[in-house]
Amino acid sequence: RSPYPTPSSARVGPCGVRGVLETLYTYPENWRAFKALIAAQYSGAQVRVLSAPPHFHFGQTNRTPEFLRKFPAGKVPAFEGDDGFCVFESNAIAYYVSNEELRGSTPEAAAQVVQWVSFADSDIVPPASTWVFPTLGIMHHNKQATENAKEEVRRILGLLDAHLKTRTFLVGERVTLADITVVCTLLWLYKQVTFIMNQVGRGWGKCGVFRLPCILLRTWI
């Protein structure tokens, strides 16, 4: 089963631990939304995805008074529970639809999960965006900034690779929100920068940082 919610209205999750009317508003191919969708698959939460007209039109629906009453920032992904509970920010949504195993079943594991989720936002997103956005036409290309971003990505992948050389998962012995968040944050690097293996990951083909997405998707599908 693909993590990419192509239909305008799709339901994720086998037998839900919550109601079937829980809704995730997003736009198609939003890697931030994938965090919640993958977490829901693992936890069994059922989530209906609204990502395209007529159900949801990004840039219009999220600016309406009705939407802003529920989500004042007007950001997506945004989540609405069947009980009226509303929350935005992708990490908060992923946390909400998760279970104890994904969040970390001990205080120590939970702290380490938060550590990697925070690391993804603070250390991976900035250089990944600087490198990838120009390839998508979202940002003007700046040669020096891109070279600096590549070096930072190299450092980050090296750090992750060293951590995973003796581990299968970032925290503990099973998938957690740490793995889900880091993989989703790296998604555009894997997907868009096709030469990453040559420019950044030379010699790492059999190492942990490149196994992690495969393990995550294999255990999810």
From TrEMBL:
GO cellular component, as recorded: cytoplasm; nucleus
Domain GST C-terminal: 106-221
Span of domain GST N-terminal: 20-105
InterPro entries: EF-GSTs (IPR050802), Glutathione-S-Trfase_C-like (IPR010987), Glutathione-S-Trfase_C_sf (IPR036282), Glutathione_S-Trfase (IPR040079), Glutathione_S-Trfase_N (IPR004045), GST_C (IPR004046), Thioredoxin-like_sf (IPR036249)
SUPFAM superfamilies tied to this protein: GST C-terminal domain-like, Thioredoxin-like
A biological-process GO annotation: translational elongation
Superkingdom per UniProt: Eukaryota
Pfam families per UniProt: GST_C (PF00043), GST_N (PF02798)
Family: Belongs to the GST superfamily.
Official protein name in the record: Eukaryotic translation elongation factor 1 gamma
